[in-house]
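Thread: Newbie trying to understand structure tokens

Hi all, I'm a second-year student working on a class project, and my supervisor (Dr. K.) asked me to get a predicted structure for one chain before our next meeting. I've only ever worked with sequences, so writing a 3D structure as a token string is new to me. If someone could post the tokens and maybe explain what I'm looking at, I'd be very grateful. Here's the chain:
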Amino acid sequence: GAGGGDEGGDWQRLPHPPHLCLETPFERKKDANRKTNVNTCENCWCFVCDIKAHECPKWCAGLGAGNHCNAFLESRKWRALRAKHAEARTEE
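---
Reply by user tm_fold:
Sure, no problem. This is what the structure looks like when written as tokens:
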């Protein structure tokens, strides 16, 4: 918390995308074709689907580049896919 003691501990208890997780390492690769980022903490959410990572149907579901476990904010591709998913949710 504030004051320097707990290095992000309070923040880590809130839902967050894996690329911002302090508990599990995340490898940023724009063209990841393998399961590079399968591990998550209990508070990691899918950056694309905006649901818990372990509930995401595309979380490292195969060997393709479309695995949501590899999504991160700095990638234009993943931001566009996130926006598309958000738009689909609002139409339901």
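A couple of things are worth pointing out once you decode it. Confidence is low (pLDDT under 50) at residues 1-5. The helical segments are 9-12, 76-91. Feel free to ask follow-ups in this thread.
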